[in-house]
Specification:
With about 250 residues, the chain is α/β, with parallel strands linked by helices. It is about 40% helix and about 20% strand. The protein has one domain: 3-Layer(aba) Sandwich (Rossmann fold), CATH 3.40.50.150. Strands 3-2-1-4-5-9-8 form a seven-stranded mixed beta sheet, with helices on both faces. A two-stranded antiparallel ribbon has the order 6-7. The protein binds S-adenosylmethionine (SAM).
Length: about 250
């Protein structure tokens, strides 16, 4: 039996993608869908945590849009090094630091908004650890604060339905890849990382129920292609995904 996917696997996967994520930040930047969501749900007065900020692809444009009270945190040290290098060009003085969503250094109720863009939340291995992350995110968010993130949606793309059907059969017969934790987990090659990547691909119900169980109310969810035809550069670098905008209710 192979060893389960652990945090080190995730750090290595993203370390190998730093160059590509840096290009994504400098050459592409914010998606039209992200711009809509951020302008709709954030206020310039908000204190914002950009979690899993990578090389600052969302952090720098948010600052430039007027959301200046923002901090970027990422698990992968090489991502933070790149973000700091880029800030020598963008000159925002944004604080970027290494940190783990499972164990945030911030106090209770410190933020009006937490963002986890480009499916980063789902690259936390195991439901148990993703639960730890959502509890942490809720802790640092004020009551009424907003949590914005994206996930894939395994029921949304017709071309993958037969793959997931086969996966279901494998899990039912205990024949799945033993590195994985739960049905929906995937190890695959991606467009951006040179190594294999781990990601959990949920369906809409899973995330909806997960948010409600953890004291959030779903304000809006949409699949990117339902509302936006992103430019080719965005599509080339990122597959379609589902946006989640949730309010911290308790
Ligand atoms: C798909 S990348 C997205 C980077 C950036 N937000 C963007 O949109 O270009 C996901 C990021 O989440 C980070 N990440 C994964 N697990 C994390 C964790 N437990 N805590 C903080 N960041 C994490 C990775 O290091 C990676 O930089």
């Amino acid at each position: 039996m192979m060893e389960k996917i652990k945090e080190m696997f995730i750090k290595n996967q993203y370390k190998s993608g730093v160059e590509s994520y840096t290009d994504f930040t400098t050459e592409v930047g914010l998606w039209a869908s992200e711009k809509y969501v951020f302008e709709q749900y954030l206020k310039p007065s908000f204190r914002i945590l950009d979690l899993g900020c990578g090389t600052g692809r969302t952090t720098f444009p948010l600052f430039q849009l007027g959301f200046k009270n923002i901090i970027g945190v990422d698990l992968t040290p090489e991502m933070i090094t790149s973000a700091k290098e880029l800030d020598k060009i963008y000159k925002t003085n944004i604080q970027f630091e290494v940190g783990n969503a499972l164990e945030l250094r911030f106090g209770k109720d410190e933020f009006d908004a937490v963002i986890f863009s480009f499916n980063g939340l789902m690259s936390i291995p195991s439901q148990m650890n993703r639960n730890r992350a959502i509890v942490e995110i809720k802790r640092v968010l004020k009551k009424g604060g907003v949590f914005i993130f994206t996930t894939h949606d395994r029921n949304q793309e017709a071309q993958f339905l037969s793959f997931w059907k086969e996966e279901k059969t494998k899990w039912n017969n205990a024949k799945q890849d033993t590195r994985l934790y739960e049905f929906g987990d995937l190890v695959t090659s991606s467009k951006n990382e040179k190594l294999q990547i781990y990601i959990h691909i949920p369906n809409k119900e899973e995330i909806n129920n997960w948010l409600i169980t953890n004291g959030f109310e779903v304000t809006e969810t949409f699949y990117r292609t339902e509302k936006f035809d992103e430019n080719q550069a965005v599509k080339d670098k990122s597959g379609a995904c589902r946006f989640w905008i949730a309010k911290n209710n308790t």
